[in-house]
Amino acid sequence: MIILKNSMKCHLCCCEKQLIKAHVIPEKFFTPLRSEKKSPILYSNTAGKYPKRSPIGIYDSTILCPECDNYIGIWDNYAQQLLLKEFDESLAVYQGPDKVFYKINSFDYEKLKLFLFLFCGERQSRIIAFSKE
Ligand SMILES: [Zn+2]
Question: Ligand 1 centre and the CA of 96: distance in Å?
């Protein structure tokens, strides 16, 4: 078996390859968190890790090869187009005076399921919370 220098096992295809710095959370999901030139703050539950600015999100260079990162981009892009758009107020669902969510009447279940599976599974190996500064 030949192991390339600096190669690791990709968590998606399970091949030994040179891995890339892959976004743990797709970068576009950070856009709504940015306001007036202030970056989102990254919090960690790891002892000794203090909150820090995270302007374009966080990366992990131990999970994906370039081919798999490109492949899952299809689902990332779909989720971004579906979830980051401005929703019509007629789709809002309220609990008392509080708007709790928007009801999406039509979407591609398979693409969204695969995005959420990856988003909540392999890419999320730690608990991270973001907030506006
Ligand atoms: Zn791979």
Answer: 46
The DSSP letter of residue 115 is H
Q: Global pTM?
A: 0.71
Structural domains counted in the chain: 1
pLDDT of 1 above 60: no
Domain of residue 75, residue span: 3-132
pLDDT band at 127 (very low <50, low <70, confident <90, very high): very low
Higher pLDDT, 95 or 52: 95
Distance 81 CA to ligand 1 centre (A): 24
